[in-house]
Design a protein that fits this description.
The protein is an all-alpha fold and about 950 residues long. Among the domains are: about 5-125, Alpha Horseshoe (Serine Threonine Protein Phosphatase 5, Tetratricopeptide repeat); about 180-405, Alpha Horseshoe (Leucine-rich Repeat Variant), CATH 1.25.10.10; about 775-933, Leucine-rich Repeat Variant (Alpha Horseshoe), CATH 1.25.10.10. The chain is about 75% helix and about 0% strand. It contains 56 helices and no strands. The radius of gyration is 42 Å and the shape is flat. Residues about 165-170, about 460-470 and about 915-933 have low confidence and may be disordered.
C-alpha cells in the first residue's frame, strides 16, 4: 500500500511497531503523520500521547511535555498516564515546582476506582526512584568543592525544593551527607548561606523544610554540628525579622508584624524540642541560649509570648529537671542549669511591670503544684526548680523563699526521710547560703536540719569512711559555708574541728568522694576541699595523691558551672596564689575563726612542688576551660593561679606549650577585675622575661601583650612589678622596629614617668628601654619632637653631681641613650644641636672625669659630626666643645686610647666637611669669641 493511501490508524500502528523496536525517531515520524491525518480527536490525542512517550525516550523533554498537554486537550483533562509522563519530564528538566503541582493532580485524578489506585501506587514508586536519583545527582554537585559556586548553590536550592514535597528526600539527604559530621556541618552551613543569600527563591521552603531539617540536624552530640545548626537557625530568624550578621543589627518592626505568625511558630518549634526527652543535652542548651540571645528584641515580642502560650511553663519544666544527679528524664549537661537560669532571668528583664507579675504567678503556680503533689519526685523537682531560680531571676526566688511557710515546706520534705530529697535540700541550702545577705533568716532556720544530719549515728564514727554517708558530708560543707554566722562558728569550733574529729579526717572523706562514680559527690568533695586546703597539712597530703589531683583537674574541665568557683579557690589554695595581705574575702572569716591565717603566712617550702605537680598534671588546660566562664571573680582567681605557675621559672614553658594557654592569659589581662588583670599581666611579664618571645607570643599576640604589661607601670604597682615590666618591654622591643614603634605608641608616658622616678632602679631600666626604642629611626624622631621637656629634665638630672655608684651607672645609661639617638636619626641630631641644654650636656660629658661618661660624650660628638653638614657646622661653632675634642685627640694628654681614637675621628670628619678651616686650623693658637655655650 502506498504511503499516500495510508490512514491515521495505519500510521499509528506503524509507529507502535517502531516504538517496540526502540526506533524512537521513526516512531515519532509515524505518529506525526497519524496526527496530521486524524480527523477524530481521540485518535489524534492518543497519537500525541504516543509521540510524547517517544520524545521522552529520546530525552527531548520539552517536546514530550508539549505533546502531553496536547494529548490531554484532545482526550480528557486529567489522564493519569499522561500526567505521570509529564511529571517525569518536568523532573528531568528540574522544574520541580511544576512537578510538585502535578503530584496533587495525579493523586486526585486517580481516586475514583481501584485500577487507578494501582496507578497511584505505581506512580509513587516511579517518582520515588526518579527523585532519589535526582537528589543523588544534586548532592554530588552541591558538595563538590571544585564545582562552580553558582551551580553548587542551584543544586542546594533544588534539594530544598525537592524536600518541600517529598519527605523521603530527608532520608536521602541525611544518608548522603551523614557519612561524617564534617559533611553534615558543611551541608548545614551551605543551607544557612542559601537562606541568607537567596531569600526570594526559597523563602517559602524555609519554615516547612529548612527549620525542621535544621532542628533535626541539631539534635546531636557533636558540638560542631550543634553550633552550625544554631547559626543556621539564627539566619532563619533573621530572614523573617530583617536582622543581619552585624553586632548592632535590630529586627525590622514592619517585617516582624508581617511575619508575626511565622516568628511565633519558630519559637514554638524550639520549645517543643527543648522539652522533648529525646533531645540531646547540648542541643537543648543551644536552643535555650538561642532564645536568650534574641529575647531582648522588642519587635520579636518573645518574652511576652512565652508567658501567653505556655512557653514559660515549658522552661520551668526544664528548670525542675536540670540536675541529672536528682532527675534523669532529660539529657542534661553540666551547663544546662546555668543556661536555664540565665534564660529565665533574661525573660524577666524584658517584661514590663504588668507582665512581670504574670511571670511570677506562672512560676509560683508551677512550684506550688509540684509541692502539693504527693509524689517525692515532684518535691525533688520543686527544689531543683528553686535552685535554678536562685541562680537566675533572683527576685522571684527571693519572694518565694521569704514567703511565710516555705521553711516549713522544706522541713516537711526533710521529714519524709527520703535520701534523694534530703540530698537536694542540702544542695538548695548550699545555693541559698551564697546569697546570705538576703536569706539570713532562712539560713539560720536551716541550721537545725544540718545539725540533725551531723548528729546522726554514723557521725560518731567518722574514722570508718566506708560507713560515712554522703548526706552527712553535704551537711559538713554547708556548715563550713555558713561561717559568717555566730551560731555556726560555735558549732564548727566544738564539733567539726575538735581533737576527736581532726581536719585530716575530713580530707580523707573528700578524697574518697573525689573519686566517686557519682558526679554530685565529686562536686561536694571539691567544695569541701576549697575550705580544708587553707591548712598546710591538707595541701601536702592532697598533692601527694596524684589520682585526686587528676580528678580535680578533670572536674575543672567538664563539671557544673555552679561549682566551678569552688574549683578556682581550691587551685588558688594549692598554689598559695594569694597575697599575704589580700586573702579571698569570702573565706576570710573562716580562716580567721579557725586560726588558719598562720598556715597562710607560714613559710611554705612545698609550694613549688605543688605547683609543679599541678602544672604537669594538666592544670593549664583546666584553667583555659575555667576561664570561659563569664564571671569576673572567677577570672581573678584563675589569673592568680596562672601567675603562681608562671612565677616558677621551670614551669613557664608549660603555659606556652598548652594550646590556648597564652591566649587565655592575655584575655584575663585585658578583661576582668583590676586585681585579676594585674595578676594575669604579671604572668605575661614572667613569660616575656625567660621564654623565646616568638614562641611565647606567636603571631599577633606579641603585639597584644604590650598593653597589659605597660599598664603594670602605673603608680599603684610596686617597684619590683614596674622593674619586671620594664625588663619585659625591653626584651619585646628587641624583636624588631615594629615592636619598638608599638611600645612607644602604647602609653609611653608610663615609661617616661619611671624615667623620672626617684627610685634609681626604675630610672635606669626605663632609660635602657628607651635606648632600645630609639634604635628605631621613627621612634627617635618622635621622642625628640614630642618629649623635649622630659629629655631636658633628664639632661638636667644627669649633670647633678653625685658620687653614688648606682646613680653614676644610671647617668651612663642616660648618656648611652643619647648615643643611640644621635646614631639612629639625622633628624634627631638636627633637633638636638639647636638645644642649648643638650650642648651644655655634651660639654659636661666630654669634660667628665669618669671614663665611661667621657666615652659616651665622644660617641655623641662623632654621631652628630657624622650626620649632616649643617649639624657638623653648628657643632664646630661651639668652640668649647671642639677645643675639648682636640684635647681628647692628643695622645699625650689622654690615656684612654678608645676616647683618643674617637676624638680623632671627630676631627677627621669635620675636616672632610670643608668647614673647619678657621675654627680648627686658625684657632689653634688663639681664643675664639664665637661660643654658643
Amino acid at each position: 500500500m502506498e504511503e499516500s493511501d495510508m490512514t491515521a490508524l495505519e500510521w499509528n500502528k506503524k509507529g507502535d511497531e517502531e516504538f517496540d523496536r526502540r526506533n524512537w525517531s521513526e516512531a515519532i515520524s509515524h505518529y506525526t503523520k497519524a496526527i496530521e491525518l486524524a480527523t477524530d480527536d481521540t485518535v489524534k490525542g492518543w497519537n500525541y500521547d504516543n509521540r510524547a512517550a517517544a520524545y521522552f525516550e529520546l530525552r527531548d523533554y520539552d517536546k514530550a511535555i508539549e505533546d502531553c498537554d496536547s494529548a490531554m486537550l484532545k482526550i480528557f483533562h486529567n489522564c493519569p498516564i499522561t500526567l505521570i509522563r509529564k511529571f517525569l519530564a518536568l523532573i528531568e528538566l528540574e522544574k520541580f515546582d511544576e512537578a510538585y503541582q502535578h503530584t496533587e493532580i495525579i493523586i486526585s485524578s486517580c481516586s475514583y476506582d481501584t485500577p487507578s489506585q494501582q496507578i497511584v501506587a505505581q506512580f509513587r514508586k516511579i517518582s520515588h526512584e526518579h527523585i532519589k536519583e535526582k537528589v543523588s545527582q544534586m548532592m554530588d554537585l552541591a558538595f563538590n568543592v571544585r564545582a562552580d559556586k553558582e551551580k553548587r548553590e542551584n543544586a542546594m536550592i533544588t534539594l530544598l525544593i525537592l524536600a518541600r514535597w517529598r519527605t523521603n528526600v530527608y532520608e536521602i539527604f541525611i544518608k548522603e551527607v551523614g557519612k561524617d559530621d564534617e559533611g553534615i556541618c558543611s551541608a548545614i552551613r551551605i543551607v544557612g548561606e542559601l537562606c541568607k543569600n537567596n531569600v526570594s527563591r526559597i523563602k517559602a521552603a524555609i519554615i516547612d523544610v529548612v527549620l525542621p531539617w535544621c532542628l533535626e540536624m541539631m539534635n546531636n552530640t557533636s558540638t560542631e554540628r550543634v553550633n552550625a545548626s544554631q547559626y543556621c537557625l539564627q539566619i532563619i530568624l533573621n530572614t523573617y525579622s530583617g536582622m543581619n550578621d552585624e553586632p548592632d543589627s535590630e529586627p525590622d518592626e514592619a517585617l516582624c508584624k508581617m511575619h508575626k505568625e511565622i516568628i511565633y511558630k519558630i519559637l514554638l518549634c524550639l520549645l517543643d524540642i527543648i522539652v522533648n526527652e529525646t533531645t540531646t543535652g547540648i542541643a537543648r542548651d543551644a536552643l535555650m541560649d538561642f532564645i536568650t540571645r534574641n529575647i531582648h528584641y522588642t519587635a520579636l515580642d518573645w518574652a511576652k509570648q512565652l508567658i501567653e502560650f505556655g512557653g514559660l511553663k515549658t522552661l520551668m519544666e526544664v528548670a525542675s529537671l536540670c540536675q541529672s544527679e536528682y532527675c534523669n528524664l532529660l539529657d542534661i549537661t553540666p551547663s544546662t542549669q546555668t543556661i536555664t537560669s540565665v534564660c529565665l532571668a533574661k525573660i524577666d528583664e524584658n517584661l514590663d511591670e504588668n507582665d512581670k507579675e504574670e511571670f511570677f504567678n506562672v512560676i509560683y503556680e508551677f512550684i506550688r503544684e509540684e509541692v502539693k503533689s504527693t509524689d517525692v519526685g515532684c518535691h525533688v523537682n520543686a527544689i531543683v526548680a528553686m535552685i535554678t531560680l536562685t541562680f537566675g531571676p533572683f527576685n522571684v526566688a527571693n519572694t518565694i523563699i521569704t514567703e511565710d511557710g516555705f521553711y516549713m515546706i522544706i522541713v516537711n520534705f526533710w521529714n519524709e526521710n527520703n535520701l534523694l530529697l534530703q540530698k537536694v535540700i542540702c544542695e538548695f541550702i548550699y545555693v541559698v547560703v551564697t546569697k546570705y545577705d538576703e536569706f539570713i533568716t532562712f539560713i539560720r532556720e536551716s541550721l537545725p536540719i544540718l545539725e540533725k544530719l551531723f548528729y546522726s549515728k554514723d557521725s560518731d564514727n567518722l574514722e570508718n569512711l566506708r560507713s560515712f554517708k554522703s548526706i552527712q558530708f553535704r551537711a559538713f560543707v554547708n556548715i563550713c559555708k555558713m561561717n559568717k554566722f555566730e551560731e555556726i562558728k560555735y558549732f564548727q569550733a566544738v564539733y567539726m574541728f575538735d581533737k576527736r574529729m581532726q581536719i585530716i579526717v575530713w580530707l580523707e572523706v573528700c578524697r574518697q568522694f573525689l573519686n566517686s562514680p557519682q558526679r554530685d559527690m565529686r562536686k561536694w568533695a571539691v567544695a569541701g576541699l576549697s575550705y580544708l586546703t587553707f591548712n598546710i597539712k591538707v595541701k601536702k597530703k592532697l598533692i601527694e595523691d596524684r589520682e585526686a589531683v587528676q580528678a580535680i583537674i578533670e572536674f575543672a574541665k567538664t563539671e557544673n558551672q555552679s561549682i566551678l568557683y569552688q574549683v578556682d579557690i581550691l587551685l588558688v589554695n594549692l598554689c598559695s596564689a594569694y597575697d599575704k595581705e589580700d586573702l579571698i574575702i569570702e573565706r576570710k572569716t573562716f580562716v580567721d575563726y579557725f586560726h588558719l591565717e598562720k598556715h597562710i603566712r607560714a613559710k611554705d617550702n612545698c609550694v613549688g612542688e605543688r605547683r609543679r605537680v599541678l602544672a604537669h598534671a594538666g592544670v593549664i588546660s583546666a584553667l583555659v576551660s575555667l576561664a570561659k566562664i563569664d564571671s569576673p571573680n572567677s577570672k581573678e582567681l584563675i589569673a592568680r593561679v596562672f601567675n603562681a605557675i608562671c612565677s616558677e621559672k621551670k614551669l613557664r614553658e608549660v603555659i606556652v606549650v598548652e594550646e590556648s594557654g597564652t591566649e587565655t592569659l592575655l584575655s584575663l589581662a585585658l578583661d576582668g577585675t583590676d586585681k585579676g588583670k594585674k595578676y594575669a599581666s604579671r604572668a605575661l611579664v614572667h613569660l616575656a622575661l625567660t621564654i623565646d618571645l616568638k614562641v611565647a607570643f606567636p603571631g599577633q599576640l606579641i603585639m597584644e601583650v604590650i598593653q597589659p604589661i605597660v599598664d603594670l607601670l602605673s603608680s599603684e604597682c610596686s617597684v619590683n612589678e614596674k622593674h619586671n615590666a620594664l625588663t619585659a618591654l625591653y626584651n619585646l622591643a628587641s624583636v624588631n622596629d615594629s615592636m619598638r614603634k608599638h611600645i612607644f605608641k602604647t602609653k609611653y608616658e608610663n615609661i617616661d614617668r619611671c624615667m623620672h622616678d626617684n627610685e634609681n632602679l626604675l630610672k635606669r631600666m626605663s632609660i635602657k628601654l628607651t635606648n632600645n626604642l630609639v634604635s628605631c629611626c621613627e621612634v627617635a624622631i618622635q621622642l625628640v619632637e614630642q618629649r623635649s621637656d622630659q629629655l631636658h629634665e633628664l639632661i638636667m638630672w644627669s649633670m647633678v653631681h653625685d658620687t653614688n655608684e648606682y646613680i653614676i651607672h644610671t647617668k651612663i645609661a642616660a648618656a648611652g641613650m643619647f648615643v643611640t639617638l644621635t646614631a639612629t636619626s639625622e633628624e634627631a641630631c638636627k633637633k638636638l644641636v639647636d638645644w642649648k641644654f643638650f650642648l651644655i650636656f655634651l660639654r659636661f660629658l666630654l669634660n667628665n672625669p669618669d671614663d665611661d661618661l667621657q666615652h659616651k660624650g665622644t660617641e655623641i660628638a662623632l654621631n652628630m659630626m657624622n650626620s649632616t653638614k649643617d649639624v657638623a657646622a653648628k657643632l664646630i661653632e661651639t668652640n668649647t666643645i671642639m677645643k675639648r675634642v682636640r684635647e681628647l685627640s692628643d695622645n699625650n694628654t689622654v690615656q684612654n686610647k678608645k676616647i683618643n681614637k674617637l676624638a680623632s675621628l671627630v676631627l677627621e670628619i669635620a675636616a672632610k666637611w670643608d668647614i673647619i678651616e678657621k675654627n680648627v686650623e686658625g684657632n689653634k693658637s688663639s681664643n675664639s669669641t664665637n661660643n654658643t655655650d
